[in-house]
Structure formats: structure tokens, C-alpha cells
Sequence to fold (202 residues):
Amino acid sequence: MSLNKFPRLEKTDLKTLNTALLFFHVSELKELALNLGLPDDGKKGAIIDRILYFIETDAIKHSPKIPAISRAQRGKKYPLQATTLILKGSYKNDLATRKFFKTLIGEHFHYTAYGIDWINEHWLAGNPPTYQEFANFWQQEYERRKIVKAQPKQEWAYINFTQKFLERDPRSSKEAILEAWERERSKQVNIAQKILSKINFN
Fold:
């Protein structure tokens, strides 16, 4: 599918669309990507970025590929040891791995988004870390976040919405927050649909 760039979206529309798409469910974003003739793989932020890039450039942005050096060899066993490389295809976020990390880090270890992102970044860079290197990073980041509160990712719209809602009204019930979220989500989906309707497709 090719995009007719006349009329092109204004920068204000693109910015508004970026915000509105954050309120979509991943399944809705995947459907939108497929309707635009785009790949629907990747996490929420990557799909949104791909959609906006296509609208702006009429080009397809593919997800970066993890190089072979960061991938496990088929049939080879990789023991849970401090010096073992964490490789795509052998690494698992399972109970056994969590228990092993607790031996390296402590009972306070738990799977985190920042840990998963760190591993993925190293895979993409062709520099897979060892379990000990990951343990060192995780503990350092854990200590840092005790001092500097980390902000939720932009694509975590519900968490961001909930935090702002509670800042305004700390005594709000879960039901009130959920109702407000659904209203805002519906509003943002409608905004996105109106902006997307301005685009012509061949």
C-alpha cells in the first residue's frame, strides 16, 4: 500500500496522533499497522514509531535484527552459570532463572522492564552479556532507583494516566480511575481516527 502525501499531516497533527496512539491496545495498533501494509511485530512503542514513520515518510521501518553472535546455537546447552552468556533463544524469564539470579543478587531480585530492555540492547549491539554482568547492572540500577525515581515509559499510558490521576485526587478508588481511563482512552482513540481520516491511500 502506498501513501498519498497530499495533504500531508501538519506537525501538530503528528504530535497529537503520537499521544493518541499511546492509548491504543497493542492488538489495535497491530491491526492499524496491518491495514497500512506494515509489519506488526515488536512492542507497543516500536509499532507506534513504525506507523508514524510511515505516515511521515511513506517508507517502512523494520524492527532491527538481532545478530547471530547474540543468538544461541541450536541444540547447544547453556548452563545457568555466572560466566555463561545470555543469548537470544536460550535465555528464559522462568522460575529456574529467577532463582539463579537470586543467588547472584539476593532475594530482592525480580524481573523488571529495565532489565529486559538492557539485555535486548546488548543483543542488538552484538554484545551479549554474561549472567554476572546482568546481575551487576541490575543491582546498580536497583540502588540508583532508590534515589532517583524512574519514570514509566511513554507507551505505558495506563500507568502514566493513573499516576497523574492520583496526584490530583489521592483518594480515588480503583473503579473511579478505571472509569476515567476508559473515557480518556475512548476520547484519544476518536482523536486518532479523525486524524488518520485526513490521509488518503492509493
